[in-house]
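Project outcomes to date are best conveyed with an example. Our students and postdoctoral researchers have been running inverse folding experiments weekly, and each run begins with a structure described purely in tokens. The record below, which covers 290 residues, was selected by the lab manager from last quarter's runs and is presented without edits.
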């Protein structure tokens, strides 16, 4: 699936938690998401069983930003889809706000990598953003208001009447993000959301997501291959091993709440964290964590 998934029934006011700074997530609170000994296996047509995830466990606190990295083919997307309730684990459990995940949670949104396939080319930008809102019992005026607010939040407040094919790749990805946040979900999952755009647009979108997190008070989990991106954006980086995947190392990122593409990435602390994460990703199978 490449579309932006937004589960119906989200609380429109859920993203307005006051008094909680995005730089200080409530790590001692009840976890927003809890992944408990999750394993996932597939059986081929020939009956061969392939184990992709092997007893993966971690928690994500309310308003925390967590990045998930690991070697290519480690099962990062499988893990994200399982957290989103798009597939069930072979064993283990996943909880969202204390409720076991057996399908897409109502207050969660998911943005996939391929923006070119996530938008309906025959629909205007406004209609693309309001499409998932049709599942909610809202008037058309309210749907338009939420779409306008979301588009404005991603810097596209004046293009509602345009069509996706009239926009650049970076703008299309902003529309996909706007469609997700139009629900103002409690949590946002993102699977390689900036992999298909150029470096400058990628930097702009990284800063956009950080600003949206602060504005809406969302919990965010992003899968990425980009180590710099993972460290720059997150409160914690979860490093996965090769397949079958387990959690190899968890790295706390203490760079403060205000981050800047030039200043933050030139800090000695940033360089040290980047090297720590990269070393963990490249660590040979079977070698213990430091």
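After processing, the design step wrote out the following sequence:
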């Amino acid at each position: 699936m490449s579309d932006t998934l937004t589960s119906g029934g989200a609380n429109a006011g859920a993203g307005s938690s006051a008094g909680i700074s995005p730089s200080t997530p409530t790590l001692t609170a009840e976890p927003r998401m809890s992944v408990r000994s999750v394993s996932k296996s597939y059986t081929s047509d020939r009956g061969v069983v392939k184990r992709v995830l092997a007893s993966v466990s971690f928690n994500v606190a309310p308003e925390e930003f967590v990045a998930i990295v690991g070697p290519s083919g480690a099962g990062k997307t499988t893990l994200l889809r399982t957290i989103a309730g798009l597939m069930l684990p072979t064993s283990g459990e996943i909880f969202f706000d204390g409720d076991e995940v057996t399908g897409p949670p109502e207050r969660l949104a998911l943005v996939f990598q391929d923006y070119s396939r996530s938008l309906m080319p025959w629909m205007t930008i406004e209609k693309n953003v309001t499409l998932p809102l049709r599942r909610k019992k809202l008037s058309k005026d309210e749907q338009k208001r939420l779409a306008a607010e979301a588009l404005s939040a991603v810097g596209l407040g004046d293009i509602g009447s345009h069509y996706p094919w009239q926009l650049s790749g970076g703008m299309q990805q902003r529309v996909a993000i706007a469609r997700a946040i139009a629900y103002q979900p409690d949590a946002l999952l993102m699977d390689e959301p900036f992999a298909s755009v150029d470096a400058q647009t990628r930097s702009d979108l990284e800063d956009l997501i950080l600003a949206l997190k602060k504005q809406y008070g969302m919990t965010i989990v992003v899968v990425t291959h980009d180590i710099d991106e993972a460290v720059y954006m997150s409160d914690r980086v979860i490093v996965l091993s090769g397949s079958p995947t387990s959690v190899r190392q968890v790295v706390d990122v203490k760079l403060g709440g205000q981050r800047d593409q030039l200043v933050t990435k030139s800090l000695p602390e940033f360089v040290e964290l980047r090297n720590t994460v990269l070393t963990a990703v490249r660590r040979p199978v079977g070698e213990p964590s430091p």
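The chain has eight helices and eleven strands. Residues 114-182 form one domain. The training component of this project remains on track.
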